[in-house]
């Protein structure tokens, strides 16, 4: 999935915004709800995390129910337990992999829904 399409899909979610919270880092983008809670983060992941050589790849971390995460990790080579986050509740999606764009958009929407503030 091209990053422009991903960022456009995130922008379409009600109240969502993108920011760059890490000083001096214009590559790591965080998708947030209006209240500021994260529902996704785009970041460079070292290729060694995927068992590959040197360098890095731009990826997307999303919240995901553990049972679905297990299925996705078994279905797509481009979905793994999250890099640098809770590996039970978050996944890393390789944007240029075997994961269809439509599936990435569905997972983005799911992560948004899972991280919405709950009514008290």
UniProtKB/TrEMBL annotation:
InterPro entries linked: YjbR (IPR007351), YjbR-like_sf (IPR038056), YjbR/MT2646/Rv2570-like (IPR058532)
UniProt cross-references to SUPFAM superfamilies, sorted A to Z: YjbR-like
Keywords: DNA-binding
Keyword DNA-binding: yes
GO MF annotation list: DNA binding
The UniProt record lists the keyword DNA-binding: yes
Superkingdom of this protein's organism: Bacteria
Listed name of the protein: MmcQ/YjbR family DNA-binding protein
Organism whose genome encodes this protein: Candidatus Borkfalkia faecipullorum
Taxonomic path: Bacteria, Bacillati, Bacillota, Clostridia, Christensenellales
